[in-house]
Design goal:
Blueprint lengths: L6 H8 L5 H9 L1 H22 L17 H21 L1 H22 L4 H4 L4 H11 L1 H4 L13
């Protein structure tokens, strides 16, 4: 045999078919022997993979049901209509809730922003003006600044 064997002929030899001449060629030809060894190694890998247990199935992603946009819009419209209906039927209830909310905000702001005597002391506008006039007299005098030529500090 002067030419090397084809892949089909090598495959037939792995299955036990083929002629004695083809078997002799594989024994004598180094390239065909190498190809036969690789083919047998590949068949062994394939047989091992097919004989192993399959890998675990991937976990399915949780199914998230989409909320239709139309349903969200309908809920918003229903809420707006309900508030409007309530406001028309019982306006005093809405006004009372608003007054209670404003009062609660006022109490909370006093508690949160209380910085001792300054915030809790009710200061009349005149006292505030006199304190500001003492620190920056030009700002609060009707005639303007009398100490323009004097240094600030």
């Amino acid at each position: 045999m002067t030419t090397c064997l084809s892949d089909g002929e090598l495959w037939a030899l792995t299955e036990g078919s083929g002629t004695a001449e083809e078997r002799g060629h594989v024994a004598a030809c180094a390239p065909c022997a190498c190809r036969m060894d690789r083919l047998l190694a590949d068949v062994g890998v394939i047989a091992r993979v097919l004989g192993d247990e399959p890998p675990p199935a991937p976990r399915a992603a949780p199914v998230r049901l989409p909320v239709p946009r139309l349903a969200m819009a309908a809920a918003a419209v229903a809420l707006a209509l309900g508030i409007t209906f309530l406001a028309e039927r019982q306006p005093s209830l809405i006004a009372q809730a608003a007054d209670d909310g404003i009062a609660a905000l006022g109490e909370t702001s006093v508690d949160v922003f209380d910085d001792g005597d300054l915030a809790s002391a009710a200061t009349p506008a005149d006292e505030v003006a006199s304190v500001l006039a003492a620190t920056a007299p030009c700002e609060w005098q009707a005639a303007g600044c009398r100490d323009i030529g004097q240094p600030l500090f």
